[in-house]
Amino acid sequence: MSAGYRLLGQDAASIDDCLTDVRRSLHRFTRLAASRGLDASRLAAGGSSAGAHLALVAALTTQAPGVTSLVALNPAGLDLCSLEPAQQRDLEHRIGIAPDRLAEFSLIEQVRPGNPRTLIHHRTHDEIEPIDAVRRFRDAMTRAGNDCTLLEYEHAKHGFHYDSDHARDVLATTTRFLLDESTSPASGNFELL
């Protein structure tokens, strides 16, 4: 299922509005899965770029019900607190939050043991989110005992997964990641909505 959410500069006054929409969608999807007889405790969430960031924040900060796997395509906002102070202030202003709240949206700050297993597809020279920040996030997840896989793509642009040269590989790898969860004897059934 695909969730829509308000965008900054359109109907969203701040990133909080965007995140509220994503959290609301996750709850809706959980109820919908249960109403259709699916195992609502085995769901995956994910997105691309800012959508990946919002899906990860929602799942990592609220223990989203039923979300056991995350798929992030060229995610943004992984290590916001490592930005220079001027960049942090500019970002806080652009996303409409108070100066003391940036860590709430920095994904590396949300890493805890027991986070959902995560698959990240990212390009090595991404112009939006540097690969070093993605690697730091992956390493933090691993140190916390979480399953986090980073697949790096050379010579690809931000949003590369839409490109026919990469789309098939991204889809196949993501499908294997999600279905591997369903075939694990200890995991029970995994539902694809």
From TrEMBL:
InterPro entries: AB_hydrolase_fold, GDXG_lipolytic_enzyme, Peptidase_S9_cat. Residues 34-180 form the Peptidase S9 prolyl oligopeptidase catalytic domain. GO terms for molecular function: hydrolase activity. The keyword Cytoplasm does not apply. Keywords: Hydrolase. This is Alpha/beta hydrolase. It comes from Actinophytocola gossypii.
